[in-house]
Design goal:
With 99 residues, the chain is mostly beta strands. It has strands at 15-18, 22-23, 36-38, 43-52, 57-63, 68-71, 76-78. The chain has a domain at 15-81. The chain is 0% helix and 33% strand.
Length: 99
């Protein structure tokens, strides 16, 4: 039985913003790994849509002006929508956290 790949949520050419800070995961060899590339809210445009076969996920190539990055749906948001609320900071673990 052939399973249809998951369809992309966003179309090619859509203006988007980074929903979260985007860091170099090592895919840009001339830039230090873990360096901030695009801050949350940074504008871009979807220039190509691919598909990660093993994970069955759409992969968006987004031109942010400074660089083109591969992004997952949860890493971008259409430019006309608000950014998602930032995730809460985790509680510190240690002696003072047992109050």
């Amino acid at each position: 039985m052939l399973i249809e790949p998951r369809q992309p949520k966003y179309p090619w050419g859509l203006e988007v913003r980074a929903a979260i800070d985007l860091y170099n995961d090592g895919s840009l060899p001339d830039i230090d790994e873990d360096q901030l590339l695009i801050a949350a809210g940074g504008p871009g445009e979807i220039v190509q849509i691919g598909h990660h076969t093993e994970a069955d996920l759409p992969l968006y190539m987004v031109d942010f002006g400074l660089c083109v990055l591969g992004c997952l749906e949860e890493e971008i948001v259409p430019s006309d929508l608000p950014l998602p609320a930032p995730a809460p900071e985790p509680e510190p673990v240690g002696e003072d956290s047992a109050r």
